[in-house]
Amino acid sequence: MDLSRYHRQILFRAIGEEGQTRLSQSRVLLCGCGALGTVLAETLVRAGVGFVRLVDRDFVELTNLQRQVLFDEQDLAEQLPKSVAATRKLKLINSQVIIEPHVADVASGNVLELAKGVDLILDGTDNFETRFLLNDVSLELGIPWVYGGCIGSHGQVLPIFPGETACLRCLMEDVPGPGTTETCDTAGILGPTVNMIASLQAVQALKILAGHKDQVEASLHILDVWDGTLRKMSVKNLRDQGHCPACHQGERAWLHGDRASQTTVLCGRNAVQVSPHEKRAIALPELAEKLRASGQVTVNPFLIRLVVEGGAYELTIFSDARAIIKGTNDPAAAKSLYARYVGS
Question: What is the pLDDT of residue 182?
Fold first, then answer.
């Protein structure tokens, strides 16, 4: 492989030619292609990470363009799923990297297959249920992962090495309850926050993939871009001193589906994702024809958009039978709309 495009990165002594070769042979699962995910994906692809499996359940919306760096107004006009739109851009940036997009929700039923054969898992998600699932699969398969989250002007990053360092459940026993934490509905989100947190995640990823795991600190990094502060909280002894049910007792509640939700309220969107109990493929053109009598329908190879009840609700239906229902934050109302237009 021609490494000349990475010349400036190779000059950095901690990477060098050996580290760059390691990067080119590395395989990464990136879960989420929104704010954090787009910055992570672009950074990894430009750095020459050889294989990136990119998974996202969502489609491009107007409010994404403020901070999700791989999307533009053309992607919005084409109503593209995020993983598809991102892959199109990333292939133009670096044709040497293999990018494998998946339009899917990361869930207990598919996460083991998605994590198969990768060296590292990166968190680009926006909810703790998926993060606890990633924590479970990391522990189950022995794959390191890097947690990242941000809101408003602040965020956190934690690298996790299963069986060696504290996991997410060592730090946080359970998913925060509704209303107990800030969301983008209440606090908003700044683009610079996203860029800084994703960059900290990417640095940890480059260290791990280039063969410098020993240089990764067992610390929770806490950053506030508005205040200009960076704190590091050591978690070095947290695993050994605690009684984490995941680390010490092998509990995998999220991986086994015991804690899985069939509905997910989407942050800042006035929308709910509904996933059927049984995964099934939908023939989108056929369903689109059936729905034309119900409201305004548009369709592309990846999704159907249905606007109903005078524009009060918008259903985006994917080929895996998931739907994102915009116009409500009520899971019960979303399920009712799903049953009415998609079926139970």
Answer: 65
Q: Does the predicted model carry a pTM greater than 0.85? A: yes
Per the listing, tokens 């990475």 go with: 6
Residues contacting 309, CB < 8 A, separation 6+ = 295
200 vs 44: CA distance, rounded Å = 12
Residue 177 confidence (pLDDT): 63
115-136 pLDDT per residue, tens = 999 999 999 998 888 999 999 9
Q: In angstroms, rounded to a whole number, what is the distance separating the alpha carbons of residues 288 and 286?
A: 5
**Residue limits of CATH 3.30.310 in the chain:** 263-341
Please determine, looking at this structure, whether the domain spanning 263-341 carries the CATH number 3.30.310. Answer: yes
Which pLDDT value is given to residue 184?
Answer: 64
What is the enclosing helix (H) or strand (E) of 316? Answer: strand 313-318
Burial status of residue 163 (CB atoms within 10 A of its CB: 0-12, 13-18, 19 or more): exposed
pLDDT at 178 over 60: no
* Residue 216 CB partners (closer than 8 Å, separation 6+): 159, 161, 204, 207, 208
- The architecture (CATH level 2) of 4-249 comes to 3-Layer(aba) Sandwich (3.40)
Residues forming CATH 3.40.50.720 domain(s) in the chain = 4-249
